[in-house]
Amino acid sequence: MDVYEAVASRRAVRRFSGDPIPRETLERVLSAAARSPSGANLQPWHVYVLTGAPLAELKKRTAERVAEGDPGDEREYQMYPPELKSPYRERRSAAAEQRYAALGISREDRRSREAAVAANWDCFGAPAALFCYIDRDMGQAQWADLGMYLQTVMLLLRAEGLHTCPQMAWSVYCRTVADAVLPPPGLILFCGVSIGFEAPAACHDRIDRAPLAETVTFVDG
Ligand SMILES: Cc1cc2nc3c(=O)[nH]c(=O)nc-3n(C[C@H](O)[C@H](O)[C@H](O)COP(=O)(O)O)c2cc1C
């Protein structure tokens, strides 16, 4: 698979088959992704990979918290600005509409929307998930390094025939994730990434992007 194909075929997949992923595949991908660039080569990512019983236990414990109505842990970072201005606000609503339309869920159907959100805590059925942490001392530039690293991981997983869903949602239950992976003190959980083979009947939503001219300006005279 060439890079264009990997980029084009990567989407946030939210329905995985439970088929296990060979450990060697994950090791191959994560070894290759370590070549990702980072400012001053700090490599500020700290990654934990969960599969099998530890992942099942994390899913179970989180589902229990959700079932109890637990609103989650004190947030360690702000996922989005509190007032999302234009054009970001419209892009967010459009993405949500496209996603729920693809699932056949109407705007009024709150229960189904909530169930779709709750599927985060099951990693959408994925047999593996990685959890990416960063040192509390790191600044915005190092958070950007994490993004580059994670995109590299996701594209390499495409090359292995696998799909992913990055999930900031896990930061809501970061203490439960920490109980599972036991990170050293001083690390903040950025996100989880569910990893697996796409379930055969998964819905193929393709979320639009802004036209190039909205986000890219060529200054070439
Ligand atoms: C850093 C990051 C965090 C995300 N967190 C979540 C999440 O918690 N749950 C979820 O279902 N999707 C999550 N997504 C997926 C986005 O909703 C998705 O990438 C976006 O809508 C574009 O769709 P596409 O990736 O399918 O093209 C996240 C994506 C990124 C990059």
From TrEMBL:
InterPro entries in UniProt:
Nitroreductase, Nitroreductase-like, Nitroreductase/BluB
Region Disordered: start-end pairs: 63-83
Q: Where is the composition biased (Basic and acidic residues)?
A: 63-77
Domain Nitroreductase, by residue range, is 7-171
- Mind listing the GO molecular function terms for this protein? oxidoreductase activity
What keywords are annotated for this sequence in UniProt?
Flavoprotein, FMN, Oxidoreductase
Q: Return the SUPFAM superfamilies for the record.
A: FMN-dependent nitroreductase-like
User: What is the name of this protein?
Assistant: NADH dehydrogenase
Specify the species: Streptomyces griseochromogenes
